[in-house]
Design brief:
By secondary structure, this protein is α/β, with parallel strands linked by helices. The chain has a single domain, classed as Alpha/Beta hydrolase fold, catalytic domain (Rossmann fold, 3-Layer(aba) Sandwich). About 35% of the residues lie in helices and about 20% in strands. The protein is globular. It starts with 7 loop residues before the first strand and ends in an 8-residue tail after the last helix.
Length: about 260
């Protein structure tokens, strides 16, 4: 990398919902490798914004990955599927702009944290747009699992899905139920001292994917709480894990796959 080269950023519009613009922060690497990553923030679907994953945008940018950190409408003002619709809108815009960004559309990955992890897994399950691989940090994957029920589900999910908190409704937004052999290669990262999202959600997703014949890997940090990668040391290590995973999956994808 040339001396003084750095990741540059700009805010772009990726869509519109009514009078609201959907914005995203674009991170351009000094030496692009032709691959892209859509970054999706967390915040229990009720808070957070596109700046939350700025650290990953910069660190992955330094490794050559063009990153787009998107936003989505938040609950409880906006109920599901507003959140996944907005992620798919950002993904569509990334695909549309890929040629001008020097990104191969067949080499676009998704990475999300917490609620963002659930959203990237659901985007992969829906398959509205091609996805080369998925990275999900401490994602809720089963809203009817033991961890979710311990926190009050299904009734507690009313803030996100509205009055219908039936098992059928929550099953339909639980990524664990969509594992298949066709699921994109997936890396799951969690800590086993997470009081917000039970780490067994990541374990269950990993096991379902492997059993279905998909490619998946799971990293469990001992004693780590929710959002542990917000600490600088963990953040750098997790960025290195993401980079290694992307190098082994996204960069090996052939154009047109």
């Amino acid at each position: 990398m040339a001396d003084g080269a750095r990741v540059t950023t700009e805010t772009i519009t990726v869509g519109r919902v009514g009078d609201r613009e959907l914005l995203a922060d674009l991170y351009r690497p000094p030496e692009p490798n032709g691959c892209g990553v859509l970054l999706v923030h967390g915040g229990s679907f009720v808070q957070g914004d596109r700046s939350q994953l700025r650290g990953y945008g910069i660190l992955l940018g330094r490794a050559g990955y063009t990153c787009l950190a998107c936003e989505y409408r938040l609950a409880p003002a906006w109920k599901w599927p507003a959140q996944i619709d907005d992620v798919n809108t950002a993904l569509a815009a990334f695909h549309e702009r890929a040629p001008e960004l020097g990104v191969d559309p067949a080499r676009i990955a998704l990475s999300g944290n917490s609620a963002g992890g659930q959203l990237v897994l659901m985007a992969a399950a829906q398959g509205a747009h091609p996805i080369a691989c998925v990275v999900a940090f401490y994602p809720p994957t089963d809203f009817l699992g033991a961890g979710a029920r311990a926190l009050g589900a299904p009734a507690a999910m009313q803030y996100l899905v509205g009055d219908d908190v039936s098992e059928a409704r929550l099953s339909a937004i639980s990524p664990v139920n969509f594992a298949s052999a066709a699921f994109p290669p997936t890396m799951l990262v969690t800590g086993n001292d997470d009081a917000i999202v039970d780490w067994h959600d990541s374990l269950a997703m990993y096991q379902r994917l492997i059993d279905a014949g998909a490619r998946a890997e799971l990293h469990v940090f001992e004693g780590a709480p929710h959002a542990f990668d917000a600490e600088a040391a963990y953040g750098r290590q997790c960025a290195a894990l993401i980079t290694l995973f992307l190098d082994r999956t996204v960069r090996e994808v052939s154009s047109g796959v």
